[in-house]
Amino acid sequence: MSAATTDISMDAERAATGWRRLVPTRWIAHLALIVSCAIIAFPLFYAVIVATQTNSEVYSYQFTPGTAFSDNWNIVMNLNKIGGYMVNSVLVALAVTTGKVILSLLSGLAFVYFRFPGKWIVFGFVLLTLMMPTEILVIALFRFVSSIGLSNSYGALILPFLASATGTFLFRQHFMNIPAELSEAAQLDGANPWQFLFKVLVPMSWNTIAALAVIQFIYVWNFYLWPALIMQGPERQVIQVGLRTLVAGDTALRFGPMMMGAVIASIPPLIVFLLLQKQFMSGFALARDK
Amino acid sequence: MRLKNVLLAGAISALAALSIAPAIAQEVIEIPTWIAFTDAGRLGWTQERAAEFNAAFPQYNVTVTGYSNYEELFASTALAAEQGNLPAVVQYFEVATQDARDSGYFTSIAEALNGRTEVNGIPVNLDDIIAPVSAYYTVDGNFTSMPWNTSSSIMFTNLTMAAAAGVEAIPTTWAEMDAACTLIMAADNAPEYCFTWPNHGWFFEQWVAQQNGLYANNDNGRADRATEVAFNNEAGVALLTWLDEQAAKGHLYYSGAQGGDSWATVDQAFSTQQVAMAVYSSSDTALYTQTGVDNGFEVVASFLPYNEATGWTGNIIGGASLWLTAGLSEEAQDGALTWLLWLTNTENAASWHQVTGYIAIRNSSVDLLAEEGWFDENPNFRVASDQLAQSEVTPATAGALLGGFPAIRNIVTQAIDTVLLTDEDPAAVLDAAAAEANALLEEYNLLNAE
Amino acid sequence: MNPSTPLLVLAVAAAVGAVLLNLLLRKQSRGMLLVSAVGAVSGAVGAAAFMVPLNFCTFEAERDPVDFWFGIGLSAIGILAVTGLASWVLNSILQRRRLFEVQSSPGAFRGSGLAFLFLAPTLIILVLFLYYPFIDTFRLATLLARLGIPRTAFVCVDNFTRLVSNNDYLQVLGNTIWQSIAIVGFSIGLALLIALAAYQPVKGARIYRALLIWPYAISPVVAGIIFLILFNPTGGIINYALQSAFNFSIPWLNNPSAAPWAVIIVSVWKSLGFNILFYIAGLQNVPKDLLEAAAIDGANIFQRFFRITVPMLSPITFFLIITNTTYAFFDTFGTIDTLTGGGPLRSTASMMYSVYEVGIQNNDLGKAAAQSIVLFIFVIGLTIVQFRTAGQRVNYGA
To answer: Can you tell me the ipTM of this complex?
Structure first.
């Protein structure tokens, strides 16, 4: 059902004629959309406002920017050093995303363009890991990663997440939809699998790559429990855990810095997401279909 | 001094510095220090001291890392120890003492000092530390960890609001609290609630100790390893019954936050005048006093109200101390010791008291502050030390030594949560909590048995 | 323990396996002796798979009856799994299918060694960081193990049987289930309503889409922080609005009836836009001819909705239920941790949050591992449902 990904506007012309009485009228659609958008936007909008306010400005419910932007900035950046956490998160998210795309491409290639004994067993072996989300393994994973001396390193945040059934499955599905003639032709031309992958498959897979990349980037950006366990000290800690220093319960809550931290932490995933949202949706469609 | 000489001296020392610099750079000893503060007042202060220390002792580099609260730092330390990544100095709160001793993560200050009277030119002078504090941190005759932020549980009253409601004297007992609250809640501009407190295990312990009630058997774990909790005694039940009653009357505000998350909710309720009184730690005396100044009301600190039926025996020392990690190299250990002694020297201990409200832990600091007239101008700042000085020392007020105490605290705050939010009977809830705590303690002791 | 206990258990398991396999393969009508033998072996192996690591401890005389039945249950699962596998293998052999046949596939490259080279990094990582910890979780669940204490003690299945008799955990289980249903239900229901109002193709659809879906990119932790101020008892704008408009306020964070709704609202907020988008896309693909024809036949708007639109949307609904349920089970963790800390009265403690509380806050690794395994059972359930429905279109032949 790739049609699920059809752009909302694509059917505009056809739909506009003939059966208008069966669908909501345009102004209702606009109204519903605007109201939904506004309700969804409000919390973030308010967070941005509060990020510039003092606590007493918050208590007086002002919807205008406050006076504490630079004070809050100072707390967020200089006292709690959110910038360092942001850099770590970007590094880890990029590393996992890149690594996972490459490993998934390779395993997809192996499953679709090679014959080998026990292929379905190996595929089942990979697929079975869908039932092992890292969340339920954290305690044991913590012990294992600590025992091999990886703890408190970027490796602890990157290595365990480089391979996944989802990624493998996504590319396998995508490759299976590419006509076999292409690979036959490539082999006639004397291309090896490596060349075939980079000269033929990758150029045809940018949408799938982008889809996997955006899903992974956000997935890794949201890491919270795992880094909180495995990383000690702030040097290589990620932003989601770093934010906890702004929400500390041992002293009066400072809403301004809290919201500023929350907003800053949301900027990179929002950018990635909004740039690649179309691929993101098609990625979901691909992952579950065909 | 001739300008030429100065320039010459400057040039020579610059050259010397340049030639030594790489050598020093390689020999700098890192002294990572983990503390449980994230606010500008306390984390910021400590980082400033670290910067001064690093400038004074270029062979060391102290880095101070802040964690959100004691509970989180405790968990992080256990996780780091599992990985062999402990820093040189960790701030452990008082209830972690038994776990700290059992874990073997740390070495005692006395052992590390090994009888020296100075380290890197910093005098040791542990006799200068005020008596109740040094007694508390001396375990088995051994000075165990470096006291730093010592506090007591006290109460802050919005005097402007209380006086307007006709409250004539700050309440000192539970009954007087009830009477004052009745007045406050009946006043014209009554706040939403009369008082609040953080649902943190510490306050339960304080209120039980005030009644001379034990928290655990074997003299609170001080005669022998504690094998059972005792907090479901009369003292515990009396406290929960009183809290339940005050909540039912609409006097007590309970924010629903527990443990490390609970402090902030009390700060907020008090500073926005949702309540007239807040039971809190003396650690934030400076903040609470300033809150009043900022918002135009007078804040008065007083002793923690006690149960008039049993009378007041005393209060337990609270706060945390700085522990020295075991297994450091001799150089690193000396560096860490230097840093600990320096951080708690007369001037720094006095300054720490002034910016926070933690007790000035050195007699010399107290003298210094008294000379400056600090206590006369700021009476709120002497309440905590007076309360401790007047406390009678019994097994109850010495505080419990208990394995798995941080986890048991969670069970207790959970019990208080249940009592305040349901109709269940306080005694039954506490019995159930004690059973759960005993199971945990049994497992803890099983794994730690000699 | 009586030394004959393991033998007795295995003998019973073998008998059960033999009977079971005969039942499973009764249509094959050949080699009853062979089938019984294979069944007996697989029954014994299945029971042993659980009981050997546990050292048959559940059948010791001094243990509780609940442990005994737990052991029976585990053995039964083992017997079922291994016998089921044996039945499938035997069936294939009897029908002369070749299990390890290298299937032909068009356009394949030569050299299976190369394929394993490509697969190696993926397989190594999966084994080290998923399979190994997965198995280790089961081992850990049989131990009394505390963080920070090197010594451990074997406690058989106590970590599990205590969960069953622990009202707190049953409450956590109940919370997780009803709150997940609420999150999924409201999120999907609201999304469908809004999509119905909005699926009319309109100008600016791209902008609307971006404005609807962005909360997906907000992390659960950040969502918790943002709503912490919206729900705050003192400065919270939601109560301020309620107070101004209706003169009442809701104690969002300190009332055990209200707090779960705070978590539900945050979660619905985060997933709503995502669901709306999928429904809009789905609604635009409902064939218009079909709706028109139905209208001409006199079907009213509700009949058209329930007889045509709903069935046409069911694949999307299904996909959204799976995605949203996974979210409700696992990703709400960050929100709960920042917003409510599992309270008040543990009303917002989910199963995932409970694992964290027990394992990290209370340092009890063994019990946390046992709770992880309960969570794992739910994951199996979800995955099976997902595959049974998606499987019709997914080609697993490789």
So the answer is: 0.88
